[in-house]
C-alpha cells in the first residue's frame, strides 16, 4: 500500500511542479538582426546575447496577448532593467506591467528581481549571484500572470484584483495612472535598457515566445 501511494505521488507531482518548458520550435522574440523590433539601433546581439547600448527600451513590433515567454538574463553589479508585458503605450512605461530584472531589491520588496514592479513582490528570492545566468518563464493569459524564476513559481497574480488606480490589493500605493485591471491585455513586449544611476549592463539570451 505504501509503495502504491508513493507511485501515485510520483505520477501527480509534475502537475504541481513549477518548471521551465522545452522551447524547441518556439518563435524567437527578436530576430538576430532586430528587424522585428522598434528603433533597435541602440541594441545588438553580440555572441548570441542581446545587450543595450543606452537607456532606450527595445520593443517588439508585434503585439502579444496570451503567451508564454521564456528567457535568460544576466546582470552586473547595480544593473537595473525589466521585461515589459503587453504595453498599452510604448511611450509610457507605466502603461505596461514590468517584471523586474536587476541585482538588488531596489529599496523595496516591490522592486525585487521577478517582482511585478510596484505591484507584487515574488514569493521568495531566487536570483543567482551577479554574473550568473537566471531563467524566467512568464505566462500571460487574460488577467492571469505567472512568473517561474529559476525553477520556482514566484508570481501568481490576477490583475482583476487591482481594481483601483494607484493602489495595490494590500492597500499600499503604486505609481500607475490606471488600475492594473484596466491594463491592455495585448500589446508589444519590451526590454528596458540601461536604467538607474549606475547605467550598468544587462544581458539577455534565448528569448522564445509561444502564443496561447
Describe this structure in words.
The protein is mainly β. It has one helix and 13 strands, in the order H-E-E-E-E-E-E-E-E-E-E-E-E-E. The chain has one domain: Exo-inulinase, domain 1 (Jelly Rolls), CATH 2.60.120.560. Strands 1, 3, 4, 6, 9, 10, 11 and 13 form an eight-stranded antiparallel β-sheet that branches. It has a five-stranded antiparallel β-sheet with strand order 2-5-12-7-8, with no helix packed on it. It is globular, with a radius of gyration of 18 Å. The N and C termini lie far apart (40 Å).
- Output the helix-strand order: HEEEEEEEEEEEEE
Overall domain count? 1
The percent range for strand residues is 25-35%
Measured between the Cα atoms of the first and last residue, the distance is: 40 Å
Q: How do the helices and strands line up, and which of them pair or pack?
A:
Blueprint: H1 2-16, E1 27-28, E2 37-38, E3 43-46, E4 49-52, E5 58-60, E6 67-75, E7 80-85, E8 97-102, E9 134-141, E10 144-149, E11 152-158, E12 190-191, E13 202-211
Antiparallel strand pairs: 1-13, 2-5, 3-4, 4-13, 5-12, 6-9, 6-13, 7-8, 7-12, 9-10, 10-11
Keywords:
212 residues; mainly beta; Jelly Rolls; 8-stranded antiparallel β-sheet; 5-stranded antiparallel β-sheet; 1 helix; 13 strands; disordered N terminus
Amino acid at each position: 500500500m505504501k509503495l502504491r501511494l508513493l507511485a501515485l505521488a510520483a505520477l501527480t507531482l509534475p502537475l504541481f511542479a513549477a518548471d521551465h518548458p522545452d522551447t524547441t520550435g518556439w518563435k524567437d522574440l527578436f530576430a538576430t538582426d532586430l528587424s522585428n523590433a522598434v528603433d533597435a539601433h541602440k541594441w545588438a546581439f553580440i555572441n548570441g546575447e542581446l545587450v543595450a547600448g543606452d537607456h532606450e527600451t527595445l520593443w517588439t513590433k508585434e503585439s502579444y496577448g496570451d503567451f508564454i515567454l521564456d528567457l535568460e538574463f544576466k546582470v552586473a553589479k547595480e544593473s537595473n532593467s525589466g521585461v515589459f508585458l503587453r504595453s498599452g503605450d510604448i511611450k509610457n512605461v507605466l502603461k505596461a506591467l514590468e517584471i523586474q530584472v536587476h541585482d538588488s531589491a531596489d529599496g523595496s520588496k516591490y522592486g525585487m528581481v521577478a517582482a511585478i514592479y510596484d505591484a507584487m513582490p515574488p514569493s521568495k528570492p531566487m536570483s543567482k549571484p551577479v554574473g550568473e545566468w537566471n531563467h524566467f518563464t512568464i505566462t500571460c493569459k487574460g488577467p492571469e500572470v505567472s512568473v517561474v524564476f529559476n525553477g520556482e513559481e514566484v508570481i501568481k497574480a490576477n490583475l482583476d484584483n487591482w481594481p483601483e488606480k494607484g493602489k495595490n490589493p494590500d492597500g499600499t500605493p503604486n505609481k500607475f495612472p490606471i488600475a492594473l485591471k484596466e491594463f491592455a491585455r495585448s500589446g508589444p513586449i519590451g526590454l528596458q535598457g540601461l536604467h538607474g544611476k549606475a547605467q550598468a549592463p544587462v544581458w539577455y539570451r534565448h528569448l522564445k515566445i509561444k502564443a496561447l
